[in-house]
Write a structure and sequence with these properties.
The chain is mainly β. 0% of the residues lie in helices and 40% in strands.
Amino acid sequence: MRKLPAALLLILTVAIAQAQFIQPKVYNLSSGGLNQMLAKGDFNRDSKLDVLFSASNSTGQELAVFPGNGTGGFAAAILTPITANQGRIVMAGDVNGDGIPDVIITAVDSITSQPEVGVMLADGTGKFGAPILFHTSLIPGALGDFTGNGKTDLVAGSNPLTVFPGNGDGTFGAPIASSFNWSAGCSAVADFNKDNKLDLTTGDAVLLGNGDGTFQSPLTVPGGGCNVAVADFNKDGFPDLVTSGGKIGGEGALVFLGDGTGKFTTSTLYKTGQQGVSGIVVDSFNADSNPDIAVSNAVDEDVTILLGNGAGKFTIGKTYALSVFNILSGDFNGDHKTDLAVFSNHGFSVLLGNGTGGLIAEVAQNFQPGSTIHLADFNGDGKIDAFEFGAKSAVLLGNGAGAFGAPITVPSSCQGGVGVIVDFNGDKKPDVAIVEGTGGGVGVCLGKGDGTFNNAIVSDAGAQHSGLIFGDFNHDGKMDLVATDTGGLSILLGKGDGTFKDAILTGLSNIVFTATGDFNHDGKLDIAAMVNTSGGPEIAVLLGNGDGTFKSPVMTSVPTFAQPFVVGDLNGDGFPDIVTPGLYIFIGNGDGTFKAPVLHTVFGVTTLQLRDINNDGKLDVLAVAGLNGFFDVILGNGNGTFQPTKIYSALLGRVSLGVADLNGDGKLDVAYLRATNNERTSTLEVFLNGH
């Protein structure tokens, strides 16, 4: 069954806006080869915080330092190639005690083919020295003073777990082996049992240090995972743990409170996403000095702040786009507020902290799968809410500030991926119409005005439909539906109570998308459909007779198969025009035909909306290249042409857009619903206009 976007219920009158969605600047290499965010630090000794990445180029790996400018921005990366044979970057940390993180790599001896580990010392200019190498087949996992001499040692695993004692200059002494095998990946260090000897945790276990470079047998941390961090969350003087936790891949942060013995037996899970944690950092994001937690939700592509109360408990704060991989915290703009460096498919950005536990970025929310979003005021409180169509359709009540509450599931008979929102019974409460699955037909769920709905009233039962559009096609003041199926269109004339008369069948083959408009300006609603024909894709316009029937279609060829499309008057002549992905602009002639299309190139478009986003009286295009992770705004000139495209980074995936004033400031905002390709999760990202 084809899933077709549908029109929104609301088009709001707003004050003049600039149509500027504020986003942090994205930084990347020209090659786009960033691999992992390794560390923060003042790598060039200018007293400004920089960010270190591992990266790849055509010949191998390299180190990339992005020098901070002290205001949250960064200069072009300073690059250092990895010259060691088959060199691979593993981790970063201060090995020689100069306050700047150095880099640990693995390599292969080009003469003997023996595996090696090396250190590349930061030189204070943003570059790194040649690798200092030594032979070992063990894999580096953690840095710390495990021998108690004030110098940084290297822990490597796994057969056996081994400490290489540091000499303080980037070299290491003879290895010290523990009596067991253990991998040191996903590691953090702290003195968990308060004996003044540094211990090691790998998230799933704690290894108490003996102070001589060896460790005691692992103490299991039940349920513990990777992305481990350490802090004293309840201020009892004992280090506590946080790791990724929940089902496979992690659903959020699993917090363990320490008892001073190194044992962690109980935990609390704070769910932040649907699946997949890619990074956790601990810092204070508000002014209360209590440790807080930031969690990067990989599958949902966002980051959530957990605010600590200082007693070991956390409140789940806001979630922000856009983050996919690991994260780093720090004061990148010198305002003494904690910021967050995030890393996504586009590059890395800094989300500036506001000092109250929030970040300056688009707000996002993660919840159950959904495919399309429609906006309306479902509970009559004057605030815009959202309806998510999908396998678990739900209402999300808006708070009037651009965020939404937890999903309220609708009755099972009202659930489905294809539907529209409209008032069918004239009570000024939004209702829902959906394409029914089992049994077929169209179901109408009348809204109760409080965000909930009655069970579906099914019409046209037995017919298998794939799409819906609405309008008053017979001029009786009651809302009608047009349902799409394989044989054509079913016109369902409304009775004004959520039920419909028997379907009027209109033949039209191979329909892939439909929309409405008065294309010949006669006051009667018409239908435009994208159809596949033997000669290629065409737009078919069916001019309405005003009684629910239509004339034979008027056909217009289109350059490429393009759906969805949107309808609106782009040049102010009173005749509807059409925009298809590409973007191809079809100016209407006023008789159901169109002038030859004009191309305004925008690549990869999967979703379109026409709105006057800056309220200048001219329709603008909102386009999503969901598979590329971009949200585009193309401002109209009012004559059928458009200004250069403004591009914003957004979530990757299948996307639906809703447009309304979400925060009551008189500017149209955008609700951007992304469903993952496997339909396991949905993320709602909100773009506030001018904020």
